[in-house]
Sequence to fold (181 residues):
Amino acid sequence: MSIVHGRAVRWWHVAPIPLLLLLSGCDSVQSAVTTRRYTVTAENMEPGLHAGQVVHARKVARGQYRASRGDIVVFIGPDSWGPTAGQTLITRVAAVGGEVIGCCDPAGQVAVDGAVLHEPYVATNAPLDGPADDCNGRRFGPVTVPADHIFVLGDNRTRSGDSRCAGTIATNTVIAVVTPA
Fold:
């Protein structure tokens, strides 16, 4: 029991105000709980993200990712991704469940549902042609992305192993979404 203005008051009568002030200053604590730092280990996202760069990403509960084209996601490589299966990977969402994606239109650009995908983040594109089922060429598809899946492409198409050669990934493998710096 405390004495406030000459009268006895129980702690829970006065504690809510300091507690509320304390909690209102906890954005950094909440941020620490809901975000995680990841180190980019490959060149697949250059020039936006560089190998060795540390990025912050908002954690996503398993199966709770709501796919959005343009997101940079952190995910666990599925078995179909061969040597990167089980590894933590970072890349960009190019198409979501139900969309049809392919390359290339007459100008050599990626299209989603027939509309050219605006990709200002791609500085180094792959050559138009490469071996079949190989990520060294730009041509692929068209691919209809299954429900609850995403089609991902690295920003540096000459250095990216992605959905062009490894297939779509289930949204429940996404564990975080990179937040802007």
